[in-house]
Amino acid sequence: MAADAAEAADVADEIAFTALDVLGGFARLTKRSPTFDGAVPLRVAQGCVPLLQGNAYGFQVTLTREVRVRRGFAGLKIQADLESVERERFANVPRLYALGLLNRNDPRAPSVQSVVSVGKNSRIRLFTGLLLKPEPGVLLRVTSAANRRNTSIEVDEEWIPAAAGFVPLVLSIHVPGEATLLGEVACVGPLQAGVGIRRRALRDAPEVAEAHVTFYDQAYFDTKKSEVSLKYRRQVAHEKPPPTKTTVVSAEIVEAGPVDWSVVAAGPFTKAPEGSAPLLDSAVFRSPFTFTALFDGHTLAIDVDKDQVAKAAVAVKHTFKEAMGAQDFLSLHRGALWYLTKFFTPHPPGDPHFFVKPWAFTRTPVGWSSVLDGIHGDGYDILRGVVSTDSFFATPAVFRVIREGSAIHILKGQPLLRVIPAPRGLLQAGFRTESLAPI
Questions:
Q1: What burial class does residue 42 get, using C-beta atoms within 10 Å of its C-beta: 0-12 exposed, 13-18 middle, 19+ buried?
Q2: What is the pTM of this model?
């Protein structure tokens, strides 16, 4: 193999993985502009740093050839001009076996015997031609693209562990109807292994309660009445650099009221991690209420049992009072507590977005942020964001209503948001490329 220069857009102090392409650029790993090259709303570009960082997170798996998936009487059918790509595959896959980069007994070996194949349960398997090898301690998470995605497909989540050598990037794509695949179809996100998550009560972390009410003070709300608040942007403008890599890190979910969440481990893996390699915990938050949301093009209306919300809000206020102790705490910080306890926050008229705020805070070590990965559903997306949870602990779930004029339905207990801690150095890391030496 011959080593190429690291991807220009991805040159960074840290390298997360190595990529080997054997299909001549059929799929590429690309880095997004945080503003989608100016396509995001002005308000977002000015003030919503977490969403901008979520837009840019990871590397997009970008197809350069169109693949059309249609449904016939016998199931899914593929329409694509991939003759030249198949010639590349026919020539280079045997070389991978000869060089020891692939093993014919590997369970994924059949997946590279064609570029696109039809599987079971309305799924196709797409061999991107890319083989990925994470650096030690790095896990690669393969998911659907986020915040700007092809909503006619769903990419099955997979994880690639370190110490597995080169692993073919084969996407399992659910196509419930028909789809045209071109451009961004998936995302490869580097994360660090060795992260645990523990539960903590707010009364045992009063500094987290203090941080919340300090950020959402009266000046914050006064500013938002007339302009975009840049408070978060200013707060994280001089973030502390990530520390030297550590083997095991612990993050906290600090509960501030009735909250439904659980720890979820990384997986499924493309290849079993070796030995007792440390893996990665994440926190999945579920909806505490059943509710509907309807966007008519102008107004976004939310229908929820207000008595249930009010009852839960009382419990949140009690938790804060218990944590802070002062008798006048609630009266001194009405705005900050109202902003949290109302749970739902719609955007301005004409905007199909709203967000909900789980009644818990995420706290990570210095130099660590959290990837907020929304769990989308019928008629809506929940957007991906990145929050500096070493200094700002709220982790909201931001909905984008896709279906206009027809309500979306969320059930109590439905998963909304997955929070995954990660060091900022790795979130900004690049990758190196290698190529097969000419014959």
A1: exposed
A2: 0.92
